[in-house]
Write a structure and sequence with these properties.
Distance between the termini: 28 Å
Protein name: EAL domain-containing protein
Pfam families: EAL
Organism: Marinibaculum pumilum
Strand content: 15-25%
Strand order of the largest sheet: 6-7-9-10-11-12-13-14
CATH topology of the largest domain: TIM Barrel
Low-confidence stretches: 75-90, 348-358
Order of helices and strands: EEEHEHEHHEEEHHEHEHHEHEHHEHEH
CATH superfamily of the largest domain: EAL domain
CATH architecture of the largest domain: Alpha-Beta Barrel
Radius of gyration: 20 Å
Number of domains: 2
Shape: globular
Helix content: 40-55%
Keywords: Phosphoprotein
Number of helices: 14
CATH class of the largest domain: Alpha Beta
InterPro entries: CheY-like_superfamily, Cyclic-di-GMP_PDE-like, EAL_dom, EAL_sf, Sig_transdc_resp-reg_receiver
C-alpha cells in the first residue's frame, strides 16, 4: 500500500500507529514531499512498530520509479511464515503453551545460509548458516520467534528454550559435518542470559556431547543486550570465547556507547544491520555508514556480515565495500536442514533460490 505522510487533515505517523494497532501485515511504501530525512525517520518509526516498510519515495517522483519499486517487491518472495521487521503481537499464545511446546518438542529450526563473498578470484561459497527457531503450533501453524521470544523472557522459559535450540543446532552441525559439510552455525543468545556466568561451560559441554567443537558455533548477541549490564556481559562473553565459541554483535548502532562496548567486548564478528543495508540503494548516508562499519570492523580484526540482503544491487554494494559475508533473500530464505546441502552445492546467490516448500 502507498501511504502519503501528508494526508489532508491527518498525520501519516498517526496512520502508521493505527496500522500497528491493527497488526497490519501490509507492505507499505511511504511517500512524502518533505526532506528525505523525514522519509527516513518515518520509515524507521514504522519498522520499530513491527510494520513492513517496503520502501520510500520522495515527491515528485517519476512513474518509472514507482514501477521499479513495485517490480522489485513483486520479485521478492516473502514467505508467509516469516514475521514483518520487528515482529508482532503474541495473539493467543500463552506461557503454558510455550512451556508445553518446549517439553513436547514442538520447536524446530530453520537455517538461513550465509554466503562468503569471494576475493581475488576465489568464488563465493556457502560456509555457514543462522539457526532460526520456529514453533509448530496446533492452532497458529508455524509461529516465528518474534512472537514468542518475549514471552519466554517474561515467563522464565529462556533457559529451556535456549537449551532446546542450542542442542538442536549443535546436533545438526555435527550431522552436517559427518556428511562432509563443515558449516559455521550461528545461534542467537537471549539478552536474559547475558548475566548468567555459569552458562558458557554447560553450552560448551553440550556442543561436545553432540559431536561438534564449540568453534563451529557462533553466538549472536544484540548490542542492546550487551549494554544493559556491560560488566556482567563482559564476563559471560569472555567465558564463551575462552570455551572456543565465536561471538557476533548484532543490531549494532553507531553511537559512542556502542563503539565503547565494541572496543571492550571480545567479539570476532560484526553484523551490519538490515536497517542500513536495506537503504544502500536509495540513501548515500546508508552507504557511508555501511562502508565505515566494514572498514572499522576490519581494522579491529572483526569479520563482517551484511544481513537483510534482498537484491543483487545490495549484494554487489557489500561486495564492493569488502564485506566478508551476506545473508538474506538474495542468497536464500530460511530453510529446513535437509535443504541446506543442495544450496551449498549450488553455491552462488544467483543459484541459491529455494522453492516455497523449502
Amino acid at each position: 500500500m502507498l501511504l502519503d505522510l501528508h494526508l489532508p487533515g491527518y498525520d501519516g505517523l498517526a496512520l502508521l500507529n493505527e496500522l500497528y494497532r491493527q497488526h497490519s501485515r501490509a507492505r507499505i511504501i511511504l511517500i512524502s514531499g518533505a526532506d528525505r530525512r523525514v522519509l527516513k525517520s518515518a520509515s524507521e518509526f514504522g519498522r520499530s512498530r513491527g510494520l513492513s516498510i517496503a520502501g520510500a519515495l520522495e515527491k515528485p517522483f517519476a512513474v518509472e520509479a514507482l514501477e521499479a519499486l513495485l517490480s522489485g517487491l513483486a520479485e521478492q518472495e516473502i514467505p508467509r511464515d516469516l514475521p514483518a521487521e520487528g515482529g508482532g503481537p503474541t495473539g493467543e499464545l500463552s506461557c503454558s503453551d510455550l512451556a508445553a511446546a518446549i517439553a513436547d518438542g514442538d520447536l524446530f529450526l530453520r537455517y538461513q545460509p550465509k554466503l562468503v563473498l569471494g576475493r581475488e578470484g576465489r568464488p563465493d561459497r556457502i560456509a555457514g548458516v543462522e539457526a532460526l527457531v520456529r514453533w509448530r503450533h496446533p492452532r497458529h501453524g508455524e509461529v516465528p520467534p518474534a512472537r514468542f521470544i518475549g514471552l519466554a523472557e517474561q515467563s522464565g522459559l529462556t533457559g529451556g528454550l535456549t537449551d532446546t535450540v542450542f542442542r538442536a543446532a549443535a546436533g545438526q552441525a555435527a550431522q552436517w559435518q559427518a556428511e562432509g559439510l563443515r558449516l559455521q552455525v550461528a545461534v542467537n543468545l537471549s539478552q536474559a542470559l547475558l548475566g548468567d556466568t555459569t552458562l558458557p561451560d554447560p553450552l560448551a559441554r553440550t556442543a561436545r556431547d553432540e559431536g561438534v567443537a564449540p568453534g563451529r558455533i557462533t553466538l549472536e548477541v544484540t548490542e542492546s543486550a550487551v549494554s544493559r549490564d556491560a560488566v556482567a556481559a563482559t564476563e559471560v562473553l569472555t567465558r564463551f570465547r575462552l570455551n572456543g565459541f565465536g561471538l557476533s554483535i548484532d543490531d549494532f548502532d553507531t553511537g559512542h556507547s556502542s563503539l565503547v562496548e565494541l572496543y571492550k567486548m571480545p567479539f570476532n564478528e560484526l553484523k551490519i544491520d538490515r536497517t542500513f543495508v536495506s537503504q544502500v540503494e536509495q540513501q548515500e548516508e546508508a552507504r557511508v555508514i555501511v562502508r565505515t562499519l566494514v572498514r572499522m570492523a576490519h581494522e579491529l580484526g572483526l569479520r563482517t556480515v551484511g544481513e537483510g540482503v534482498e537484491t543483487k544491487a545490495m549484494l554487489d554494494f557489500l561486495r564492493d565495500c569488502g564485506c566478508d559475508e551476506v545473508q538474506g533473500y538474495a542468497v536464500s530464505r530460511p530453510v529446513l536442514p535437509e535443504a541446506v546441502a543442495g544450496i551449498v552445492a549450488r553455491q552462488g546467490p544467483g543459484q541459491a533460490a529455494v522453492s516455497p516448500a523449502g
